[in-house]
Model the fold of this input.
Amino acid sequence: PMNLFKFFKAMIASVPRYTPAECSARVSSGAALLIDVREPKEWTAGVAKGAALLPMSDLNGSRALWKPFLEKAAGRELLTYCAVGGRAGIVAKLLASEGFNVANAGGFPEWAAAGWPVVTPPAA
Done:
């Protein structure tokens, strides 16, 4: 679990907030990776196509899913989204405080409304 000092330091980190339209070309080209930080039960209604499914609870916990993902993602821009953008912002700030190039890509409804393909994730 994260210590409080590290958490508060992360919360003052500044990260940009982008719209799906601002992100789509970067994700499509492979320059950026899209990450859904919602919890698994929230994914059943659909996820943005191509998004890595990495719950915030894992980032704040054992990082069983996050650690290998972050090792492979070195040098790429990370774009986080959640249900409305709140958790995505927290995750983005945490990752920025650890040296990653990251932005808050808002909420899942914004991605769906922007016409980004939505897929049903494989059953957990």
